[in-house]
Amino acid sequence: MKKIIVSIAAGLLLFGSQSLKAQLSVGSDGLFIQNGTVFSTDGLTLVPAKDWGLNNLKVMMSPAVVIWPRFNSIQRMYRFSKPVTFEGEVALSFQDIELNGNEAKDLVLAHSKVTSTNYKDYTLVQESVSSEKEHYVGQLFTKPIVFADLNAVSMISSSTVMYKDIEANNMITPNGDGVNDVWIVKNILQYPNNELKIFDREGRVVFSKIGYDNTWDGQFNGNPLPEDTYYYILYFDSGKAKKTGFITIVKEQ
């Protein structure tokens, strides 16, 4: 593993200081990269284990983000105009400003066979090597992989760990004074792939939203709901986990 880290780091030191050029374009004449040769473009470093040929291909680097159940990906996406098959070392560099809430030490590579911003299309490389100091994440692929998109995200261990930091307020006082007027769920913005449903005592849905963002003000179809206690269900990761509880609407005088 030490040998892998050294060769990846060397590639970044040689090429990482180049200014971002937006894209690499390979024409019909093709591009041949000999095995073991360090190849880098816009912070993406590749060291093929076998001779690698490319043609009629564009590689774009953009600040695109993939939305995951807890952490969004870093704000750096490498997008190939068509899927490529690769075997060898892959590493991408990043800047602190691109972390997007992730911890550099926890980053792992994520790759997709198709062009997509849906996290379900991506595979996490759990054994990725990351360096907080040198700002890169990489891995040696000993078997060929196919990818069209490459980025990185923090490792997610389990749903128990993922959602334990969700804390929901149990009361709102929507009187327009700017204090406690909306229902706040602490840390909900870290889980954009959520779905909220709020029910009254009769089990009727009085509010629902995919991607709840701390904006519900106790209304149903534009009308204030009466003072009462309501039941909520917050679903995460397409229903794989959920949090439930009660919200009381208080009409302060």
Automatic annotation (TrEMBL):
<keyword id="KW-0732">Signal</keyword>
<dbReference type="InterPro" id="IPR026341">
    <property type="entry name" value="T9SS_type_B"/>
</dbReference>
<protein>
    <submittedName>
        <fullName>Gliding motility-associated-like protein</fullName>
    </submittedName>
</protein>
<feature type="signal peptide">
    <location>
        <begin position="1"/>
        <end position="22"/>
    </location>
</feature>
<dbReference type="Pfam" id="PF13585">
    <property type="entry name" value="CHU_C"/>
</dbReference>
